[in-house]
Design a protein that fits this description.
The protein contains three helices and 37 strands. By secondary structure, the protein is mainly β. The protein folds into three domains: 41 residues, no CATH class; 124 residues, Immunoglobulin-like; 276 residues, no CATH class. Strands 17, 18, 19, 20, 23, 29, 30, 34, 35 and 36 form a ten-stranded mixed sheet that branches. The two termini are 35 Å apart.
């Protein structure tokens, strides 16, 4: 069948319209006609339900457009500095919930749609109070739900929908039992959020030592150090996926999807919207001292410390990062950031105990990862996976966070199913063709335990991430 889409607006480079509900599910094409000229048809697929949640960064990831329902006249948009409470009623905005049987050229009717809907907050099913069109905005869906009472608190609590068996994009909301701001042991403190809200920005320095251990294809170890000092505007913080990859509540997972650079199929834009920050001059160089001597690198960047994974990273000699005490300083500082010296104890890395049994990942089944060792009192474990499909030009990654002491975590099939089937590609550095799927188990120092104070900054942190990576295929 053929039908005219219901126009919303047009501009020089964009046309917005509502797909009529009477279009059947399946393969379809769309054309645009203007001044009696019709474009070539473009194919697309129609699903009965394929809901998407609106987000602050307008890229479909990070904090969602979800309101905290306080009263009929008080419904602020959820934010890091405008948190929700456990058991609170929320109003979510999106599109694609499903077809209706009323006249879509008129104001939408308020009624629940006939669609099987799950609202998942931190993986927990929420009670749905309303699922239908917004009465004010044609083509826009409104979902009212209640946050489960036992939902974990945090700045980036994962939120996703499943409508008609199809999973939406993953977004986040901020939850705290008290106060107006959120906190997270692996990212922001409540004091940080109060600073951002009251002053309009947050000034942070993050220094990270990282060890990457490749378990297959190119066995080897690569040691690096990275530093960045940024002034984050409050408005930018509100739309970021997160400053730290592992800034999630324990026991939860999230997914980020993006288009691919055809020249780099291993790169996914994980944090759209982060370009609102500006760098802060913290001094010319950073000085690092550890059990295997001294290193220096340009402040505000990264450097290779040792090891190497030819041909991906080249060869840089013996490993540098071994268990022991490390100090870092910025010399005499700069006019913007005063001099500082921070200390960190690097423990022996944990062991990914069941990595040899995982050679491929079935996206329709749960996947359990186990580990042992590490410093269970001072570490979190981040399980990271990525898969890209160069034929489709898309990729997705997931991140799950658990307490180190847990020793195991099961990644839900709901999360794995959000990744595309893996393809193959040659990495940017050249070499043999690899699966474009990665599974990685990382131990990371808890940021709030490694903070330091210095003039010119709201907070500084000196931490580490130790990673075990495998190339695997997602099927």
């Amino acid at each position: 069948m053929t039908a005219d889409a219901i126009m919303i607006y047009t501009s020089a480079g964009q046309v917005a319209a509502i797909l009529p509900s009477r279009i059947p599910a399946g393969e379809a094409t769309i054309t645009v006609t203007y001044n009696n000229q019709t474009s070539a048809p473009v194919p697309f697929r129609v699903a009965r339900s394929s809901v998407g949640v609106f987000t602050r960064n307008q890229a479909g990831s990070g904090p969602g457009i979800v309101q905290n329902y306080v009263s009929a006249t008080d419904q602020p948009v959820n934010a890091l500095t405008e948190v929700a409470r456990p058991s609170q009623v929320m109003i979510l905005w999106g599109t694609g919930l499903g077809p209706v049987d009323f006249d879509e050229t008129r104001a939408p009717e308020v009624r629940n749609l006939d669609v099987d809907l799950d609202v998942l907050v931190a993986g927990k099913s929420a009670r749905v109070l309303y699922k239908g069109r917004s009465p004010q905005f044609p083509g826009i869906d409104q979902i009212n739900f209640e946050i489960p009472a036992d939902t974990p608190e945090g700045c980036h609590v994962p939120l996703a929908l499943r409508a008609g068996g199809v999973v939406s994009n993953f977004t986040t909301i901020a939850i705290a039992a008290r106060g107006r701001v959120c906190s997270d042991p692996n990212s922001y403190s409540a004091a940080d959020m109060e600073t951002a809200r009251s002053s309009g920005w947050l000034r942070l320095t993050l220094i990270t030592l990282s060890k990457l251990n490749f378990l297959n294809v190119f066995p080897g170890v690569w040691d690096q150090a990275n530093s960045r000092s940024n002034r984050w505007p409050h408005a930018t913080l509100l739309k970021l996926n997160r400053i730290e990859t592992y800034a999630l509540p324990y026991g939860t997972c999230t997914v980020v999807s993006s288009g691919l650079d055809p020249n780099d199929p291993f790169d996914i834009t994980e944090n759209p919207g982060s370009d609102g920050s500006s760098g802060i001059d913290g001094g010319a160089a950073l000085n690092l001292n550890g059990p295997r001597g001294s290193k220096q690198w340009q402040n505000g960047g990264g450097t290779d410390l040792g090891g190497g994974i030819p041909p991906i990273s080249g060869s840089y000699g013996p490993e540098y990062l071994v268990p022991g005490v490390y100090t870092v300083d910025n010399g005499n500082g700069s006019p913007n950031i005063g001099p500082y010296r921070a200390t960190l104890t690097l423990p022996a890395p944990p062991i990914w105990t069941n990595h040899s049994s995982i050679t491929a990942v079935n996206r329709s089944q749960d996947l359990t990862v186990t580990w042992s060792g590490g410093d269970t009192a001072k570490e979190s474990v981040l399980i990271y996976g990525m898969s890209t499909n160069t034929n489709l030009g898309v990729g997705s990654l997931f991140a799950c966070v658990e307490r180190s002491a847990a020793g195991r975590f099961t990644i839900p099939a709901l999360v794995l199913s959000a990744l595309p089937v893996s393809g193959t590609a040659i990495p940017p550095g050249g070499g043999q063709s690899l699966s474009t799927g990665i599974l990685q188990v990382n131990s990371a120092s808890i940021r709030e335990l490694n903070r330091f104070q210095v003039q010119g900054l709201d907070a500084g942190s000196f931490g580490y991430v130790m990673s075990n990576r495998k190339f695997v295929g997602y099927q």
